[in-house]
Amino acid sequence: MRRGKKYGLIIFSLMILLMSWEGQKIDSAAAEGAIPQQSIRLRILAHSDGVGDQIVKRRVRDAVVEQMNAWVGELEDPQSLEAARGVIREHLDEIGERVGETLAESGKKYGYKVELGMVPFPTKMYGGAVYPAGDYEALRVTLGEGNGKNWWCVLFPPLCFVDAGSGDALQNGQGSQAVSAKGGADQPVQAEPGETKVRFFLWDMLVRLWDWIAGLFR
């Protein structure tokens, strides 16, 4: 068991180096298209920049986007901002429950906050365009202290569509009722489609490796 922990610590050190590169690459993938004047963003703030907290941030992202996809699919007009706003407000408690469940499943005991309103954003690049800092309507999920790197995307109207199984970006006509599972960090850059597929595969491997290492210390 001691030998296993030694190997685990060595692998963990290598993971930190890989995470610092891979996490930035994945978070920096920007969706295609410009952000309309009337839109609703999603912003998730991690508890910290620690490896475990950043992994949990992505798990929460996946849980929220998956749930939003289901609700968007039920709308008569998935492009209606008013309808989208109403759905989010109606299901805020359910979104919070989903976030809480994800944190519990990940072994995290810190709190969280889910809110819809005007949220401050720093200057962002999205789809090759720069958007000035300011307050924008958004669904904001704060995990713990919310001091870590954030993840964000545009919930409504959906501008980029992602296959949840592979993380590959799809053409806009292939899934008109899907919410993007891609977004950007504070300083996103454009990513090539082929590179995105490889990066998501590497990220999945890193997450599984982290879970294995964490299991050695339980």
UniProtKB/TrEMBL annotation:
InterPro entries xref list: Spore_II_R
Pfam families hit by this protein: Spore_II_R (PF09551)
Domain of life assignment: Bacteria
NCBIfam families xref list: spore_II_R
The name this protein goes by in its record: Stage II sporulation protein R
Name of encoding gene: spoIIR
